[in-house]
């Protein structure tokens, strides 16, 4: 398949590391002009340098801003008023006993994991509709469907993304703009490594720790290993391409078979 995004501009939030970085790199390989977003210019510039090194000829720019705030979002929109592909990837997670999740915790998870993406969708969707082409994606999680007992606030925020993407897909119906969510399964990132060692014996070598974590805490996985960020990125790049023009309002799974369902 020719996943050609030449002439398109893409913004990936939270793309200085992990899944977001791999998505940005994948979009750059497909020919898109990619804006790297992080809270600090230093981290965004480092990610830009790395992608330019790994993808010769890539057009990559910095879009440093804290999109969890209205002021930060306004600054980003001033610098980047128009995009063709928006990937709402930014998110936080962490284990916390259910009865110890405070009102402030609930608000923080909603504001970072949900509201930041909704703001950007409201800002960029009208221009996409006017131009008759666009792609908006929300990076959700298996936790949206299989709520983890150790972090139900995170699960709640990812469930909200499924509803938001479906709703905005209806708003964009018939315009040439698609809106989807990607249900990512347990994925190997630096943050997840830290989380894994919070859940299992921290003295174990990584390979053993990963397998113990999957066996004890994610036994539903059919892959029986953590997913690599590039595997998530492959799906995102496809959904961003013209070849995915008939896929909208969907929750597409890249979960390693974690969600025990035969329908998406």
Automatic annotation (TrEMBL):
One family from Pfam that matches here is adh_short_C2
Alphabetized, the UniProt keywords read: Oxidoreductase
> Which SUPFAM superfamilies does the protein's record reference?
NAD(P)-binding Rossmann-fold domains (SSF51735)
Gene3D superfamilies registered for this protein in UniProt:
NAD(P)-binding Rossmann-like Domain
| UniProt GO MF annotations | oxidoreductase activity
Protein family: Belongs to the short-chain dehydrogenases/reductases (SDR) family.
Specify the protein name: NAD(P)-dependent dehydrogenase, short-chain alcohol dehydrogenase family
Which species is the source of this protein? Saccharopolyspora flava
């Amino acid at each position: 398949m020719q996943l050609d995004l030449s002439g398109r501009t893409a913004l990936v939030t939270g793309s200085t590391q992990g899944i977001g970085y791999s998505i940005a790199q994948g979009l750059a390989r497909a020919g898109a002009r990619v804006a790297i977003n992080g809270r600090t210019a230093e981290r965004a510039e480092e990610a830009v340098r790395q992608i330019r090194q790994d993808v010769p000829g890539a057009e990559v720019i910095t879009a440093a801003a804290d999109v969890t705030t209205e002021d930060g979002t306004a600054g980003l929109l001033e610098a980047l008023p128009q995009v063709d592909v928006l990937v709402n990837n930014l998110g936080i997670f962490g284990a916390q006993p259910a009865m110890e999740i405070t009102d402030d915790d609930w608000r923080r998870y909603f504001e970072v994991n949900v509201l930041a993406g909704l703001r950007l969708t409201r800002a960029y969707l009208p221009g996409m509709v006017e131009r008759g082409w666009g792609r908006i994606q929300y990076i959700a999680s298996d936790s949206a469907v299989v709520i983890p007992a150790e972090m139900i606030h995170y699960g709640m925020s990812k469930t909200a993304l499924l509803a938001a993407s479906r709703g905005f897909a209806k708003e964009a119906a018939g315009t040439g703009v698609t809106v989807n969510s990607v249900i990512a399964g347990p994925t190997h990132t630096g943050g997840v490594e830290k989380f894994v060692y919070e859940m299992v014996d921290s003295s174990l070598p990584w390979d053993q720790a990963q397998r113990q974590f999957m066996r004890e805490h994610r036994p539903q996985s059919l892959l029986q290993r953590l997913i690599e960020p590039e595997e998530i990125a492959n799906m995102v790049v496809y959904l961003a391409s013209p070849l995915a023009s008939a896929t909208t309002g969907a929750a597409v799974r890249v979960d390693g078979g974690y969600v025990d369902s035969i329908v998406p």
